[in-house]
Write a structure and sequence with these properties.
heterodimer, A: mainly alpha, 13 helices, globular, B: mainly alpha, 12 helices, 0% strand
């Protein structure tokens, strides 16, 4: 793979080099080095320009604006960020957000690992059936899923009917509009996000390694712990950081299933903009969320790379 | 994988299917709820009825929302496919540190949470007078879906040999016609699935819409959102059931597209 890339790279350099020597006869407007760079990269620039221009103007610029607001609104300085240390309301929201996201991530990655393991070990026909049951929920609107949970978990919903019917509970238990319901909804939403990267990592594992381990006398369990599990660590890192990062910024499920009673950071930000109009607080929390997510993503990628390198050697 | 069909494996498999049931069964519940014979939102009591479907699909408010969403989704998905596709071709042709930087920029909208993007859009759109306009909503969705179309096209170009396009150029094709006749056909599965991903995204997105649209642009997700706030309107069940069934169909179609790709 790496070999093939360098090969293509060299080839591309060679060909653009030859273009350059032919073009050298045509005009001589730019000084040598700059012109060579431009010649070699002109196609790249033309192809990339629309996306780069659109993203800089309509995405990076507004994000920079939010950053500026977070240190200028209402007064210039770091007052907004100081609230992270002093405001107990904000701290409660942050602690709840991290808590629920961690529980969601551990459950989604744990169960997701199991499903991905079975998926990778199943014959193609069964695997396709399982993938269908994973991909449909993955793509169905979050709104439709939140709605499904409201139907299921309500006081008179099927879950409570079954619990009472089986004699497990005397009266309907409250699952909706509290942290339990939100956690169930979030795990449900995040499971496919955990399963898919884990499955991608397991699919590529060389089965001969497992056969070799068994052949050398290791038990199935020892083979799993010493051979299979280490090989899937990059996948676990990827799934864990993806699910955790998505959970932190989650809006729809906590708002609908939590019914406004389970305040997480995304909803808190929107209240600060749309209801109480405190742009300083909202943009400070947005930046805090964004920086945490970028750091977590970078850490996840780093861990993935280190683990992959460890396996390669 | 040659796994002995032993008891631990069967146990694992049973748990995996239980997890899949947890994933899938809640969605199935939406369908009987949408076919309820009751006038309020509930599961059917005495029989099934399609009267809520008839009501929704004759209601000008819901129909207008569906029409608007269709238009916005088509426009944003097409724009995102052009932007993301060209960027993917750029990265594929010229690997290196610029391609790496471009990839980072293009994937940024995927990493930034919707609520943070929404804040940014809201401020800029207010100053550009784009709030609650088609242009504003389409641009925002284009930006948010570029990562999907980029990734889809990039993955279908992954195995395509750069020399093919160079061969076309050497044989006299212009830069543009080499791309159109060699690269684009090879990337077709990626273009189609990217288009579909972007299209589906628009039907689902609500957070950004809550900020940048109000009266003029009322997309389907906005109506569902408002309906979910009071949870008595059976129309929500009808629309959710329809979306779920359409999603299932779209996945089967995608499956066929990808199978074709593997076959060729």
């Amino acid at each position: 793979m790496l070999v093939c890339c360098t090969y293509n790279n060299d080839l591309a350099n060679l060909s653009s080099g030859s273009n350059l020597s032919i073009a050298g006869f045509e005009h001589n407007r730019f000084p040598g080095a700059a012109r060579a760079w431009l010649r070699a990269n002109l196609d790249f620039l033309i192809l990339a320009l629309p996306a780069v221009a659109a993203l800089l103007a309509f995405f990076v610029a507004p994000l920079a604006n939010v950053l500026v607001l977070s240190v200028t609104e209402p007064t210039t300085g770091l007052d907004n960020y100081r609230m992270l240390l002093t405001n107990s309301g904000i701290q409660r929201v942050l602690v709840r957000t991290v808590n629920l996201s961690l529980i969601t991530t551990v459950c989604a990655v744990g169960f997701g690992y199991l499903v991905a393991y079975v998926l990778a070990g199943s014959p193609p026909r069964q695997r396709n059936a399982m993938l269908f049951f994973i991909l449909v929920p993955f793509w169905v609107s979050a709104l439709a899923r939140a709605f499904a949970w409201i139907l299921l978990l309500g006081q008179n919903g099927p879950v409570n009917s079954v619990l009472i019917g089986m004699g497990l509970s005397e009266q309907p238990i409250k699952i909706l509009y509290n942290e339990l319901g939100v956690t169930i909804g979030m795990i449900h939403y995040m499971l496919p996000y955990a399963i898919l990267p884990l499955y991608a990592a397991m699919k590529d594992i060389d089965q001969q390694l497992l056969v070799a381990s068994r052949g050398l006398g290791a038990s199935p369990f020892a083979t799993f712990v010493h051979v299979y599990l280490p090989l899937t660590v990059p996948g676990i890192a990827a799934a864990f950081s993806l699910v955790f990062v998505y959970s932190l910024g989650f809006y729809v499920i906590p708002v609908i299933i939590g019914g406004g009673r389970v305040l997480m950071i995304a909803q808190y930000i929107s209240i600060n903009v749309l209801d109480t109009v405190r742009w300083g607080t909202a943009s400070m929390l947005s930046m805090t969320l964004l920086v945490s997510i970028l750091l977590l993503t970078a850490a996840g990628n780093g861990l993935k790379r280190v683990a992959a390198r460890g396996n390669a050697s | 994988m040659t796994v002995a069909r032993n008891w631990p494996w069967i146990g694992l498999k049973a748990v995996a299917w239980l997890v899949l049931a947890f994933l899938f069964l809640p969605l199935l519940l939406i369908i009987p709820a949408s076919l309820s014979d009751q006038s309020h939102l509930s599961l059917p009591r005495n029989g099934l009825s399609v009267r809520h479907y008839a009501k929704v699909f004759q209601d000008p408010v819901w129909l207008a929302a569906i029409g608007q969403t269709l238009f916005v989704a088509l426009a944003a998905a097409s724009a995102a496919t052009v932007l993301g596709g060209l960027a993917a071709i750029a990265c594929w042709r010229t690997p290196g540190k610029w391609a790496w930087a471009l990839r980072g920029l293009v994937l940024l909208p995927l990493i930034v949470p919707p609520i943070v993007s929404a804040l940014g859009f809201y401020q800029l759109w207010a100053s550009l007078k784009l709030l609650d306009t088609y242009a504003g909503v389409i641009i925002a969705f284009t930006i948010k879906t570029v990562p999907y179309t980029f990734t889809a096209v990039a993955s279908s170009l992954f195995l395509l040999d750069v020399r093919l396009e160079q061969a076309a150029r050497n044989l006299g094709a212009s830069r543009w016609s080499a791309i159109m006749t060699v690269v684009v056909p090879a990337a077709r599965p990626g273009i189609l699935s990217g288009l579909l991903f972007a299209f589906v995204y628009v039907w689902d997105e609500i957070v950004i819409l809550l900020f940048i649209s109000s009266r003029e642009i009322r997309l389907l997700s906005r109506l569902i959102w408002e309906g979910l706030q009071d949870t008595v309107d059976p129309a929500i069940a009808v629309v959710s059931a329809t979306l779920t069934i359409l999603t299932a169909i779209a996945i089967l179609v995608l499956g066929f597209i990808q199978r074709d790709r593997l076959a060729t």
